[in-house]
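User: Could you go from structure to sequence for me? I need the amino acid at each position, not a summary. Structure tokens:
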């Protein structure tokens, strides 16, 4: 793992990825954030040594380095998922590379279904805590203690200071922002009615197929982390309709300007 991290990091440094401060992972339907970056360098995933390749058709596959509000950022345009056949170590490998390049803060976005029926599609949810239902851990491999603390504390996985700033920014800009618990499942199938009922019982407000592995590794590496979900559908087990992926992407696109506003203003304050 250390050899792979070193090879990937050196490749990107040679491409001009020079000491980014903030890492950003963009989820489904959130690609327009790239337009806010003054791009200095970029690299396709399939050109970076040891990097996985995004296989989901609506996920791009580029690592982008540039500036926003004078701050150096590195952005994943497209992420990896366990449901694509990757291991949790593969999924989180880019976080390790971003940390090695120099980031101190990781911001994550995703598309999620609203389990809390007080939350509506097209709205945003700030993740306050999470439930890992992916069946394993990205830290469950031999030699993990060479990269960080094996028994990583997860009492506050999402940075309180950053989350407070996000809530203030949303309020100042008139953006409706819920706060809640995100449950991460494997997918790629959507949940059954019984599964949505279970998720509600165990305390989830939203459900998705990403983010938690990256947040675990961010904490393992001592990074400050924060994440926001775009709520793309409402998961009412008593009135469940067949999933429409196109509608999910449209809802993500509808909420994207709010997400961009929050991230841009936050980067100014970090």
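Assistant: Here is the amino acid at each position, in order:
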């Amino acid at each position: 793992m250390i050899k792979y991290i070193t090879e990937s990091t050196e490749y990107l440094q040679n491409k001009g990825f020079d000491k980014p401060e903030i890492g950003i992972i963009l989820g489904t339907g959130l690609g327009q954030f790239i337009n806010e970056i003054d791009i200095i360098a970029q690299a396709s995933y399939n050109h970076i040594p040891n990097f996985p390749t995004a296989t989901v058709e609506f996920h791009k596959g580029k690592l982008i380095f540039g500036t926003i509000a004078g701050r150096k950022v590195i952005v994943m345009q497209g992420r990896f998922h366990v449901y694509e056949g990757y291991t949790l170590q593969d999924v989180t490998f880019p976080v390790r590379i971003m940390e090695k390049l120099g980031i101190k803060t990781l911001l994550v976005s995703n598309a999620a279904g609203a389990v809390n029926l007080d939350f509506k599609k097209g709205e945003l949810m700030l993740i306050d805590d999470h439930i890992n239902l992916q069946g394993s851990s990205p830290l469950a491999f031999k030699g993990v203690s060479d990269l960080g603390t094996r028994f990583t504390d997860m009492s506050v996985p999402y940075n309180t200071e950053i989350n407070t700033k996000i809530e203030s920014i949303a309020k100042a800009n008139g953006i409706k922002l819920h706060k809640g618990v995100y449950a991460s499942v494997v997918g790629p199938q959507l949940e059954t009615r019984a599964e949505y009922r279970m998720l509600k019982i165990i305390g989830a407000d939203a459900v998705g197929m990403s983010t938690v592995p990256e947040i675990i590794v961010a904490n393992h590496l001592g990074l400050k982390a924060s994440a926001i979900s775009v709520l793309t559908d409402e998961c009412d087990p008593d009135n469940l309709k067949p999933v429409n992926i196109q509608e999910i992407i449209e809802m993500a696109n509808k909420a994207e300007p709010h997400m961009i506003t929050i991230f841009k203003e936050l980067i100014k304050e970090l």
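One structural detail worth keeping in mind: Residues 2-269 form a domain with the Rossmann fold fold (CATH 3.40.50.1580).
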